[in-house]
């Protein structure tokens, strides 16, 4: 799959990846990009579907370009605001 990203893509969208696997995959993508004559920074990673607890500590920005988290269902706007505040709080 990573080879396809290098050959044809400009980004990768892993679903529910662990921080450890992300670090390993980013290193692999960087190496493969260099070997293919591509700039590794031109390949973005958008992590999708992770629970906020799965990204604690937060995924380092140098590994993922963006992270889309899967929020818990809540009944009210204040509950959602509290959840978002917890996620966005600096570590």
Distance between the termini: 32 Å
- Rg for CA atoms: 15 Å
Tell me about the biggest sheet?
A: 3 strands, parallel
Mean pLDDT: 83
Number of DSSP strand runs: 3
Strand residues, percent = 5-15%
Strand sequence of the main sheet, in spatial order?
Answer: 1-2-3
| Element-level helix/strand string | HEHEEH
User: Helical region count?
Assistant: 3
Helix/strand-derived class?
alpha/beta
User: Roughly how much helix do the residues carry, as a percent range?
Assistant: 25-40%
Shape: elongated
Unreliable runs = none
Describe the structure.
The protein is built from 3 helices and 3 strands. Strand 1 (11-12), helix 2 (19-35) and strand 2 form a beta-alpha-beta unit. The protein is an alpha/beta fold and 91 residues long. It has helices at 2-8, 19-35, 77-88; strands spanning 11-12, 44-50, 66-69. It has a 3-stranded parallel beta sheet, with no helix packed on it. Helix content is 40%, strand content 14%.
Which key phrases capture this entry?
91 residues; 40% helix; elongated; alpha/beta; single chain
């Amino acid at each position: 799959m990573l080879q396809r990203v290098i050959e044809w893509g400009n980004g990768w969208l892993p679903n529910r990846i662990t921080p450890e696997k992300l670090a390993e995959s980013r290193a692999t993508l960087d190496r493969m990009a260099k070997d293919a004559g591509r700039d590794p920074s031109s390949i973005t990673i958008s992590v999708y579907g992770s629970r906020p607890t799965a990204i604690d500590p937060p995924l380092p920005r140098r590994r993922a370009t963006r992270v889309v988290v899967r929020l818990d269902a809540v009944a009210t706007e204040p509950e959602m605001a509290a959840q978002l505040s917890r996620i966005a709080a600096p570590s």
